[in-house]
Amino acid sequence: METASAKSVFFVLLLSLLSLHVFSLSFSPIDNYLIDCGSTVDATVDNRLFVSDSSCADSSYLLLASSSRSVQLSDRIYDSARFFDRPSRYVFKIRDQGTHMVRLHFHQFNSSKIDFDDAQFHVLVNNYVVLSNFSGGHQMSSPVVKEYLIWVDTEKLVLTFFPTKKSKFAFVNAIEVISAPKDLILDTAQFVNGDKVENFDRLTKQALEVIHRVNVGGVKVTPFNDTVWRTWVPDDQFFRSIDVSRRVYFGGRIKYQDGGASREVGPDNVYGTARVIASANASIPNVNMTWDFPVIDGYKYLIRLHFCDIASISLGLLYFNVYVNENLAYKDLDLSFVTGYALASPFYADFVVDGDHSGVLSVSVGPSNKSIEYAIDGILNGVEIMKMNKSMGILDGELCEGVILKSWPRTNISLWFAFLAAVCVLLSLSVFVTRKKRNEGKNSVAWSKLPMDVSEVNSSHGNQQMSGKL
Ligand SMILES: *[C@@H]1O[C@H](CO)[C@@H](O)[C@H](O)[C@H]1NC(C)=O
Ligand SMILES: *[C@@H]1O[C@H](CO)[C@@H](O)[C@H](O)[C@H]1NC(C)=O
Ligand SMILES: *[C@@H]1O[C@H](CO)[C@@H](O)[C@H](O)[C@H]1NC(C)=O
Ligand SMILES: *[C@@H]1O[C@H](CO)[C@@H](O)[C@H](O)[C@H]1NC(C)=O
Ligand SMILES: *[C@@H]1O[C@H](CO)[C@@H](O)[C@H](O)[C@H]1NC(C)=O
Ligand SMILES: *[C@@H]1O[C@H](CO)[C@@H](O)[C@H](O)[C@H]1NC(C)=O
Ligand SMILES: *[C@@H]1O[C@H](CO)[C@@H](O)[C@H](O)[C@H]1NC(C)=O
């Protein structure tokens, strides 16, 4: 009997060792679509292959290459864009239901053929309006990357580009649609509303737009160095500088633990740097560290705060309070306790707040009643601020999906139904393209691009002046 139980213990141990091994491998998403729009060749950016969409696009959709490559941009994906002079969509087959990361890359460039002043469009991800009356940033400025976290429980993710009117066009330079790690967004956060802190449920079902992603006390983290290809910017522009705080950097190993924040929630580069309040003598500094983030009124925001005690000399010495919008959100936070008594072990906390009229969302960390002299009395390693869809699935502007779909000019209502039917037929004819990455041979890509147009349906080859290659 004893040997049997010993065997099973050994087996369980082996299994957990195996699973540890699996967890230590880098994240490989089931759905992983990287599209280099408007390009005739694939582009590799930071070891990631962005596949050209040219073979799947209707020739009436202009693809455009930049005449002069901008010197400061090494990323090839910004050399080309695809233009749409009518509502158009990309349809992605979803194999892994759940939260998906959707990133849209926009960069205007100089062109003799296209006047970017005429770029004005809406973008929908499934039923969510993610961009409204958008122009794609400004020429000469750096690319604009919009990132969304969208729950998908259907078999498709449909990305619709919708010019605001017939004289305007839409464009996009690159698209990423990636299934998110299962532990990236959990279903419950803490809703901080004045003095009250209560559960906010069904978080995963909200559409989120990442507004700020900040590596506190550290350097910029690029997609190359992030486990799920995010960008984290330094916190200097948000931090209200105070004398007693200092930056800390940790060169050791971050202790990721099962059930805690994983490397996909925050990479080593984020947890390995922080700002702290330290007490160097027998008095505890009576100050907070505060960060201010500009936000737009009228939405709820998810605030994710990342902590990792990389500064204390031993366990049980760090206690502090966390405030959002000047309301106490987490009292006497004890990182030793919440990480199961480990130093340099990451922890994160999700808070939901209402954006108010101030246009600013503030996060503060400061000593608590339990703080200790001659110790660290406050720490913060990273912050993410995400905008949550308001009612009718709106993440930008005031128009909902229905209003946008109806806004495209059409002659009569029967044409509208024809259009809907056409969409259904087209959906069932989705084209799947499979490409093999030269060396790895396992990188399959399945997607299709479907044109949809109302008034052009009957006028056969109507408007083609946008077609052709420059
Ligand atoms: C774009 O065009 C403007 C005006 O024609 C010019 O001043 C600018 O240098 C050009 N930019 C690039 C990156 O070529
Ligand atoms: C769309 O943007 C343009 C210019 O940015 C502005 O003139 C126009 O009023 C906006 N329209 C709506 C409906 O917001
Ligand atoms: C990645 O991180 C390492 C170590 O932090 C740094 O030296 C390197 O420059 C980073 N690479 C990129 C592309 O950001
Ligand atoms: C502790 O140090 C701070 C700043 O270094 C100083 O302002 C304060 O007076 C000191 N307090 C005591 C009790 O020495
Ligand atoms: C820290 O900020 C909170 C919220 O604004 C405030 O109640 C508290 O008094 C501040 N603490 C200090 C020492 O300023
Ligand atoms: C700290 O202790 C004081 C006095 O005991 C109390 O009034 C105050 O509410 C406590 N502050 C917090 C944030 O718990
Ligand atoms: C976001 O949209 C969903 C439906 O798509 C809705 O159930 C939810 O209430 C919206 N969120 C907010 C905060 O209004």
Automatic annotation (TrEMBL):
Q: Where are the transmembrane segments?
A: 413-433
Q: What's the chief localization of this chain?
A: membrane
The UniProt record lists the keyword NAD: no
Provide the protein's localization: Membrane
User: What molecular functions are annotated in GO for this chain?
Assistant: ATP binding; protein serine/threonine kinase activity; transmembrane receptor protein tyrosine kinase activity
The signal sequence is 1-24
Which protein is depicted?
Malectin-like domain-containing protein
Q: Which organism is it from?
A: Acer yangbiense
